[in-house]
Amino acid sequence: MLQVRDVWKNFQGSPVLRGVSLSVGAGEVVGLAGPSGGGKSTLLRCIEGLETADEGAIALDGSVGFMFQDFQLFPHMTVRENVAYALRPSKKENRAAVRVQDLLERLGIWDLRDRYPRSLSGGQKQRTALARTLVLDPDLLLCDEPTSGLDADCTDGVARLLRSAVSSQRAILIASHDSDFLKKAADRILHMQDGTIGKEVRNPFPLRAPNGAVRTADLLALAREEKGEQSQESGPQEEPQEEGTPSRIEFGEGQG
Ligand SMILES: Nc1ncnc2c1ncn2[C@@H]1O[C@H](COP(=O)(O)OP(=O)(O)OP(=O)(O)O)[C@@H](O)[C@H]1O
Ligand SMILES: [Mg+2]
Fold first, then answer.
1. What residues flank ligand 1, with Cβ below 6 Å?
2. Among the four residues 89, 91, 107, 256, which has the most C-beta atoms within 10 Å?
3. Cβ contacts of 21 within 8 Å, gap of 6 or more
4. Could you tell me if residue 235 is inside a domain?
5. What is the number of structural domains in the chain?
6. Which of 16, 44, 181 to mutate to test the pocket of ligand 1 (most atoms within 8 A of CB)?
7. What is the CATH number of the domain that holds 34?
8. Could you read off the pLDDT of 145-178 as tens digits, one per residue?
């Protein structure tokens, strides 16, 4: 899905990426670890197209979504408005509304739909940001420091959340200096330092979210629906869940 080959990037004459190569396949969650300043965010920004590589090639088969380090939720918009905003140019308003509701339910934040970001916990903001990214159904999800500012419990929730968002058609690349988090979230971890990728560690025991198969199917159905493909499900059939109660999508972080 993603092939990065020998990418170089300089800022003001100093090299920040120095011949980075990596590949990510559909269905994989890949972690980018390493110390501050190593070039992780710069690499994600090059993949996303926010920066242009000076040399090398980046081939991406599919669409890309970016979840920013500080979430970048719009403070003057509610949870629902933040998520719906991503779909704004959509002509199919009704379908967009259904899709937003479905996703918020699946992520367990439908009850928070009319709240503003300032009144949300870190984990709740995190889920809102993820909803806003997933609503566009990206094939590759890039996450930059998704656990920054979250406590350990929330961090586990984010690991489960991200694992639940991967599917046979979607890959996730996560930059994080939190190696404990990456050990839970990622299938393999690439170590990045001084603009190069060093050793790769395969993770035999990534955190498995409960009922993962069900959730992946849910997200896939959502994706197909939006793409206009036929889906067995005609829409959200189940009742919105109370926050904190187990739902189809259980992220282990119910209290948020
Ligand atoms: N727009 C820019 N202009 C100049 N230098 C930059 C720019 N963006 C990043 N850099 C520099 O590039 C280097 C790599 O930064 P980057 O943000 O990619 O590292 P990182 O691995 O994501 O670090 P962290 O773990 O702290 O997020 C740093 O030395 C940084 O100062
Ligand atoms: Mg960074």
1. 11-12, 16, 36-42, 177
2. 107
3. 4, 5, 6, 7, 56, 197
4. no
5. 1
6. 16
7. 3.40.50.300
8. 988 877 777 788 788 878 888 888 899 999 998 8
